[in-house]
Amino acid sequence: xxxxxxxxxxxxxxxxxxxxxxxxPRHVGLMLDGNRRWARSVGLATAQGHQAGADRIADLLGWCxxxxxxxxxxxxxxxxxxxxxxxxxxxxxxxxAATVAKLATTRRWRLQLVGELDLLPSEIADRLRAAEELTSxxxxxxxxxAVGYGGRHEIAGAVRSLIAEYVAAGxxxxxxxxxxxVEEIAEHLxxxxxxxxxxxxxxxxxxxxxxxxxxxxxxxxxxxxxxFWPDFRRVDFxxxxxxxxxxxxxxxx
Length: 253
Fold this sequence. Notes:
Helices cover 46% and strands 13% of the residues. By secondary structure, it is α/β, with parallel strands linked by helices. It has a six-stranded parallel β-sheet, with helices on both faces. Strand 3, helix 6 (122-134) and strand 4 form a beta-alpha-beta unit. Helix 5 packs parallel to helix 6. The chain is globular and about 70 Å long. The model has no long low-confidence stretch (mean pLDDT 93).
């Protein structure tokens, strides 16, 4: 049985006060996990679970703005997800496209797509690109939307792009082998030019990355929350920030 709502309100205010002046992340990555299990737990169809999860995103972005987070990366669809039941994938892609379009029309956040859009149906990809373009001049919070995203795919693509660049410049195989650096690979990732995430949050109780931001999260802090994504509340978000603020970031040192 959940505590009364007013108790959550008191707890939220207490957490908010505790975070005043604390060291908070600039860039947060979120794995929005648990939509299907949430739907089963409340007797709803899978698509309704995905829609409930999508409906939480605007709230999350507002919470991030409230505490001054500058950049958010949301994993909405992995390359592995594309191998699920065809009906579920079709429903999920429509929910994602509609949600991204709705976020874009507010012109409140700068949207950037990260992932293999060529793996998606062309109509869905075109709608996503149109939403991204609509916010290209927005100066607000920067929102990376990971759709058709897989960390291994991203790294492999970055290396292929870098090698093609070297070949176009006339470099030999030996020169390429001697030239590749960590910094150059980073410049060919989807998130090139962006700071790496300080904090990565995964909902639903799973304690693994599953391929999310494999390269970028080398020095990130991780927080695993038991709540399914549709049940993720502001108090859960503030708890994650409190946990982050209390850690000593060694950055590999």
